[in-house]
Structures are given as C-alpha cells and as structure tokens.
Specification:
Elements (H helix, E strand, L loop, with lengths): L1 H4 L2 E5 L12 H13 L4 E4 L11 H15 L5 E4 L5 H10 L7 E5 L8 H14 L4 E5 L1 H4 L5 H10 L3 E6 L4 H10 L5 E4 L5 H6 L4 E4 L1 H4 L1 H12 L3 H19 L5 H9 L16 H14 L3
Helix pairs in contact: 2-3, 4-5, 5-7, 7-8, 11-12, 12-14, 13-14
Length: 296
C-alpha cells in the first residue's frame, strides 16, 4: 500500500551546483546513493531543500528524470510539483515525467496569501489533474499562509488521491487535530526534523527530512526507534544529533545542510543567489560537531 511505502523518513534532496552555477549531476548521484545506503525510506525531489525556486522549469524536469533513473526502483520517489499559480502547477503536471513517481509533494501557494477556500480550490484542481497521489505541503513560515487543520481534513475527505500532508507549521496542536480526525490511510508527516519524534509519538507517520541528507545513518537510527514505538530510545539517540540539526537551520535551509555536506567532502558548497554559502563560523561549528559526535 502506498501509505506504508511513504511512511518513515523521506530525504528532502538538495541540488548540488558546480562553481559556475550548473547542476552538478555527479554530486547529485553521489548524494542519492549516500542517503539510500544510509537507510532512508524514500526520496523527495524538487522540494524547498532543492532550491527549486532558483531552478528553471527545464532544469526541474531533467533533475526529476535524473533522480528517477538513478534511484532505479531502489526506494520510492516523491516529486515536488508546486507554485503560486494553479495554472503553472498544471503545466508542471503535464511537462514532468511522473511515471516513476509514487506521489507528488505540492506546497501551498506562496506570496498570494490565498484564503482557506482558495487553498481548497487550488488543491482540488491539482488533485483532479495529478496522475499520481498528492501530498499536501503546509509551510507557513515560507509561504505566508497557514493551511488550517480543517482545510487539510476537508481535502483529505473529499479527494481519494490526496494521500497525506507534510506539516511544517510548527504547531503541534494543529498537527494533533489532523492526526486525530484524519480518514483512514491519510499520512501525516512532520516537516520539521526537530519535531519528528513528537509527531510520531502523537500518531504521525514520519518526516520529510533535511537532516537525513547529512547524517543518514545516525538520523535513521533515531527514526527507526520511533517507527518501532520506542520513543524514549529515539529521544536518547537524538540527543547526539540535536545541536547539529539546530546548526543545519541556523543560517537557513539549504545553506546549513550544504555547508555540512561540503565539510564532509560530499559536495561543493555552492548555492544560487539569493542564497549564499554559510559563514566561516558555521563551517567551523560543523567541523566541531561532526568530530565530537562522530556524525560521518
């Protein structure tokens, strides 16, 4: 069942760049292997962490195809398909090759600040045109609008292919309400690494994670305990990761995770403007934390 395939931990993949700003496909392949070998349950392409707003539409289509081909069926794949214009999202659904995708992840329209009815109508239209199941993505800190539990539950009840929600509101009460009132088989995934264990303790199904890019084996160790219902052991394991996870977001995402990965020698520390690489202090912090907690 698709719900079980997309429970657990999804890796929100970065997009590595070369020094001259091109997509670094060799590094991207290396990163895909790294997170799969580290035990991640599935991969999420073209989300926030991928710097998707800086990617041209043809680049997005090629990246989606490349990731799909390189995964080669080893783990499930979710592809980010979103935007602040509903018609543009429909264009992406037509242009992207989604045959290998298990679902799409679609963010609430940003900047426009639609009403709850506007959000409902947007996702109704997306769900009616998507050839694969839809995971809603609520991240008000980036989009400027919070999709309420009531709107999420209304979409879950009305459309069979609305599979779940990635909840990054940071509001545990809102997340609990969705968990408590959701239809059968509706996924509730944390959008915050630091809240993942608490969300799962309250009945959630997992996390779409930034941290698993950098520290897959250690992060999966925590989450596997949580998946087994051993939340105290999960909390204990997470203590060694807590400072490093906070550092990942200290200067923004994906600035932090790219800084950590460059310290580990997995990618070059290149981003596309308006994002810039992490400071020397952040790089020093990662060197210290990775050595202190054996996070390689």
């Amino acid at each position: 069942m698709i719900r079980h395939k997309l429970s657990g931990v999804g890796a929100a993949m970065i997009t590595p760049f070369t020094a001259d700003g091109r997509v670094d496909y060799k590094a991207l392949a290396r990163m895909i292997d790294y997170v799969i070998e580290g035990g991640t349950d599935y991969i999420v392409a073209l989300g926030t962490t991928a710097e998707t707003p800086t990617l041209y539409m043809p680049e997005r289509a090629v990246i989606a195809m490349f990731i799909s081909n390189h995964i080669a069926g080893r783990v499930p794949l979710v592809i980010g398909v979103g935007g602040n214009s509903t018609s543009e999202v429909l264009d992406q659904l037509r242009e992207f090759d989604l045959r290998a995708a298990d679902a799409i992840l679609s963010v609430t329209p940003y900047y426009n600040k639609p009403s709850q009815e506007g959000l409902y109508q947007h996702f109704r239209t997306v769900s009616e045109h998507s050839p694969v199941p839809v995971i809603l993505y609520n991240v008000p800190g980036r989009t400027g609008v919070n999709m309420t539990a009531e709107t999420t539950l209304r979409l879950a009840a009305d459309f069979d292919n609305v599979l779940g929600v990635k909840e990054a509101s940071g509001n545990l009460d809102q997340i609990r309400r969705i968990i408590d009132m959701r239809p059968d088989n509706f996924l509730v995934l944390s959008g915050d690494d630091g809240m993942a264990i608490d969300v799962m303790r309250n009945g959630g199904d997992g996390v779409i994670s930034v941290a698993v890019n950098a520290f897959p084996e250690r992060f999966m160790r925590c989450m596997n305990y949580a998946k087994a219902g051993d939340y105290d052991r999960a909390d204990q394991e997470y203590k060694a990761l807590d400072e490093a996870v906070h550092a990942l977001f200290a200067e923004g995402n994906p600035t932090g995770v790219k800084c950590a990965l460059s310290v580990m020698g997995l990618i070059e520390n290149n981003l596309r403007l308006p994002l810039v690489p992490g400071t020397a202090n952040l790089e020093k912090r990662f060197r210290e934390l990775i050595a202190a907690h054996d996070l390689r």
